[in-house]
Specification:
Layout: H1 2-7, H2 15-18, E1 19-25, H3 29-40, E2 45-50, E3 55-63, E4 66-73, E5 95-102, H4 106-115, E6 123-129, E7 135-141, E8 154-157, E9 173-181, H5 184-193, E10 199-202, E11 207-214, E12 217-222
Parallel strand pairs: 1-4, 5-8, 9-10
Antiparallel strand pairs: 1-5, 2-3, 3-4, 6-7, 7-8, 9-11, 11-12
Length: 223
């Protein structure tokens, strides 16, 4: 039954409460941090390396349990055989890439989604070491799985690890998140099946639109 599937999904209390983080991909991490600082007036906090992925990140908190992940190539790691995630190797400029939703019991949740025709991919482990030596560990649905032109997020569960927003640079607040898509009804239906409250309206191309309050005023980013 669909209702049983939705029990495992994030509570439908508004999309902002469901956002774990936004993924902001950059061709070079330092220049990406500088670009974000020009946009928001906040200097991102170093996050850490993603072992084996060839990337590292820096973070800006967007609220008490959400953040902006600025992710780019890690010069201390070799490029993975299949390339870096999120098309980072082919980027020419910073780009709002996708969003990531809060999740729990991801194995059960992903199995329920698949039974209803939504394949989120495998649930896999991840980790990174913060600069202060704290090891963060999480599980997440496969970020390489593309659904609804990336308007369907992947899901992450931080388990017992502290949430990255706790140590991320403060000063920016996510105030809105919405989407546009040529087939808005289809994408909206999938989101609702997953218990997600992201609003989708019809647009010429797929686009995620995030709005922020910052020391530089209101900022809008589009994917």
């Amino acid at each position: 039954m669909l209702a049983a599937f939705l029990i495992a999904a994030p509570a439908p209390s508004g999309v902002l409460a469901q956002v774990d983080h936004l993924v902001y991909t950059v061709p070079d991490l330092q220049s990406g941090i500088e670009a974000a600082e020009k946009l928001f007036g906040v200097h991102a906090t170093p996050g850490g390396q993603h072992p084996g992925q060839g990337t590292r990140n820096a973070l800006i908190a967007l609220g008490p349990q959400s953040y902006l992940e600025i992710i780019g190539p890690d010069p201390e790691q070799v490029r993975p055989p299949g390339g870096r995630r999120f098309g980072i190797d082919d980027l020419n400029a910073p780009h709002l890439f996708t969003w990531v939703a809060k999740g729990k019991s991801l194995e059960t949740f992903a199995a329920g989604a698949k039974a209803h025709g939504i394949d989120l991919g495998a649930v896999i482990p991840g980790s990174r070491m913060r600069p202060d030596g704290v090891l963060l560990k999480w599980t997440y649905t496969d970020p390489n799985t593309v659904l609804g032109d990336r308007l369907i997020p992947y899901f992450i569960d931080w388990g017992s690890s502290p949430h990255p927003s706790e140590t991320a640079a403060k000063g920016v607040t996510l105030t809105g998140l919405r989407a546009e898509h040529p087939d808005a009804r289809r994408v909206q239906t999938m989101l609702k099946q997953l218990g997600l409250a992201l609003a989708v309206t019809r647009g010429q191309k797929p686009s995620l639109i995030a709005t922020f309050d910052s020391p530089k005023g209101k900022v809008e980013l589009r994917s």
